[in-house]
Design a protein that fits this description.
- With about 450 residues, this protein is of the alpha+beta class.
- Among the domains are: about 160 residues; about 80 residues, Alpha-Beta Plaits (2-Layer Sandwich), CATH 3.30.70.
- About 60% of the residues lie in helices and about 15% in strands.
- The chain has a 5-stranded antiparallel β-sheet.
- Strand 9 and strand 10 form a beta hairpin.
- Helix 4 packs antiparallel against helix 5.
- The longest helix has about 35 residues.
């Protein structure tokens, strides 16, 4: 903080200290302390009473919105009532407390201010109930990212309006070199940026939901357009937020030009991933839902963003892989143009078995598996003659590449039982030992050793 001698300058440190002193002086008053204790007790009762009633009605319930075919209207109404009960109980208790304070002739200003906030709480939960009635569980992300933050912002604004001296606090000036920023402008810039982030998210979700049916375009192309639209809106929000703070874009452009070379060198990896993300989104070499094989692991693509791609392995692990890995290295896409893949099951049988019978038994056994397709049919290839076995390779077709490992394992179990039922032996390594002319010596040694 730099004092330039102007008496109109509001220094943030002095204002904060004054505000804290004022609040401490206000809290030292017995009537304020009494109201605070009453408010805390009311909020505690309002918060715990609905939970007690819910646990008695449905022990161990998670309190989530009931959905599904087996959910009755009564269960949904009970959930809505549980959601609205806490603010209603708080309003009733606050009204009773205010009435008692009025009969005693005591000041109840703090109770009146908290009553306004509780009314806002009731309005928020009422809006949530209406949204769940109209849209069901699909409204959950909108509640998390739009409705709840809007409620928090309104509560903070109302609290600033109610507390004495906070108006002066938000008008305080923060100096960053030659730039003077007020707290109100800072809050407004953050709000502007948040609104554009939410707008980008909502528009992107709407495009991915409505455009496929109306345009007939591939889902990957629409995802690409939605992603770029979201980032464009976020960029506009950043520019407007900086303008609200009063930044001079001429000087900012000069600084950005001077730092562009250094930033470009230091962020080569980030830029490479960003460009690779654009390539993946527009070329559609990878799409959400594709089954790929990367680093000898079969995974399903979950999400493609501009920096990295998220995949889920067969062991239910999420991997975040930089996009440049997919454009600079070989990646096997098992579902790019066709979901049908061939699963190879190598096996061996003894020389006592008939190859034609082995082929028939293995092919018929493979068709008994629920995931094996009849077309194209299973194929049993005769690989050759081994040292102690004749070797085959069973090839089957499946349309679920991510379950190929399970199919291979199941077929091994099934082949074991089928071969045992038809008398086909599974061989084990055998060796013939040729001693030459040393056999007579060995035969002469063994009896003497027994007599000894």
């Amino acid at each position: 903080m730099i004092n330039d001698g102007t008496p109109q300058e509001n220094f943030l440190g002095q204002i904060i200290r004054g505000q804290i002193d004022f609040l401490l002086a206000m809290l030292a008053r017995p009537v304020v302390q009494q109201q605070l204790l009453v408010i805390l007790a009311i909020l505690l009762v309002a918060w715990t009473l609905p939970e007690i009633l819910r646990r008695r009605r449905r022990p161990g319930g998670a309190g989530r919105y009931p959905q599904g075919e087996g959910v009755s209207l009564r269960q949904r109404v009970a959930w809505f009532a549980h959601l609205l009960l806490a603010p209603i109980v708080a309003l009733v208790l606050l009204a009773l407390a205010s009435r008692l304070y009025a009969l005693r002739g005591l000041p109840d200003g703090l109770l009146a201010d908290v009553t306004i906030l509780v009314w806002m709480w009731l309005a928020y939960r009422g809006l949530v109930v209406v949204l769940y009635i109209l849209f069901g569980e699909a409204v959950r992300p909108y509640r998390r990212w739009i409705v709840t933050p809007a409620f928090v912002i309104l509560v903070i604004a109302q609290a600033i309006n109610m507390l004495p001296g906070t108006v002066t606090l938000v008008d305080a000036t923060i100096r960053l070199g030659t730039l003077a920023i007020t707290l109100s402008n800072l809050l407004l810039a953050l709000l502007t940026l948040y609104l554009f982030i939410i707008a980008g998210w909502v528009i992107g979700q709407s495009m991915m939901r409505w455009l496929p049916d109306r345009t007939g375009a591939e889902q990957g192309v629409i995802d690409s357009i939605a992603t770029l639209t979201r980032y464009a809106l976020i960029s506009v929000g950043i520019v407007l937020a900086l303008s609200v703070l009063g930044l001079d874009f001429t000087s900012l452009a000069i600084i950005a030009g001077g730092l562009s070379v250094g930033i470009g060198i230091g962020m080569q990896e980030f830029v490479a991933n960003f460009i690779s993300g654009l390539v993946l989104l527009f070329e559609q070499t990878l799409r959400p839902g594709d089954v790929i094989e990367v680093d000898n692991r079969i995974s399903r693509v979950q999400k493609i963003s501009l920096r990295a791609t998220t995949v889920r392995t067969l062991t239910n692990q999420e991997l975040v892989i930089p996009n440049s890995n997919f454009t600079s290295q070989q990646v096997t896409n098992l579902t790019k143009s066709d979901r049908i893949v061939r699963v190879l099951v190598p096996f061996s049988v003894s020389y006592k078995s008939k190859p034609d019978e082995v082929r028939e038994v293995a092919g018929a056994t493979a068709l008994q598996h629920e995931l094996v397709l009849a077309e194209p049919p299973p194929f049993v290839a005769f690989l050759g003659y081994g040292e102690s076995s004749i070797d085959f390779n069973l090839s089957v077709s499946v349309d679920q590449p991510d379950r190929s490992g399970r199919v291979r394992s199941d077929l091994y179990y099934m082949l074991w039982d089928a071969f045992a039922a038809h008398g086909i032996e599974i061989p084990f390594p055998q060796r013939d030992l040729n001693l030459g002319d040393g056999w007579e010596k060995l035969a002469g040694i063994v009896p003497h050793s027994k007599e000894a």
